[in-house]
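Task 17 of the worksheet. Students: predict the tertiary structure of the chain below and write it out as structure tokens. Keep your answer in the requested format; marks are given for formatting as well as content.
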Amino acid sequence: MTDTAGKYDRFSGFYDSFEALIERRAFSKYRKRALSLAKGKVLEIGVGTGKNLPYYPEDVEVTGIDFSRGMLEKAERRRELGLKNVKLMLMDAQNLEFGDNTFDTVVSTFVFCTVPDPVKGLEEAYRVLKPGGRAIFLEHMKSKSKLLNVPLYLMDPVMRALTGTSMVRETQKNIEKAGFKIERVENLFFDIVRLIIATKPSGD
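Model answer:
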């Protein structure tokens, strides 16, 4: 994880500028839709520069973790704008420092394309989510369309070198492998960007 975290530390200074156009035209709307579903005690995995923080309902308590100090410094500046009930922590998604069944909601937005061992990270998310709790995944991933995958495969080596991000992960399948029960999938940009709502069965 150290190499990937180092890439994000170096990238943190211009990360928001790099994504500014797509954030304005699409991602901000997707975030607003996804974060409106958060309830109770929330864990955000890969909080990054804190882009999600303004979209949370006022009555939730958010713990945001990230493996990059540089990204967390940017998120801290957003938190200081007056956001309440937000705590930020340096932490590896693959080794969460929380007890079992701690959170009512787990959130990730464009994160599990980058976690080196995504299934391990998702299993950790599953572990800390309360039985009956909700997981909200806003993620980009490999399409079911071979044609749509062509540009993704072309971009993949560049993004891996720059940020450690894979453009062709099968994240929906990985979510299921980790034990989550998928309740709903919304295709937001073809089936490349998906909003996936999942739960941890009450019996676990």
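Marker's comment: The helical segments are 2-11, 15-18, 20-35, 69-79, 118-128, 146-163, 171-177. The longest strand covers residues 129-140.
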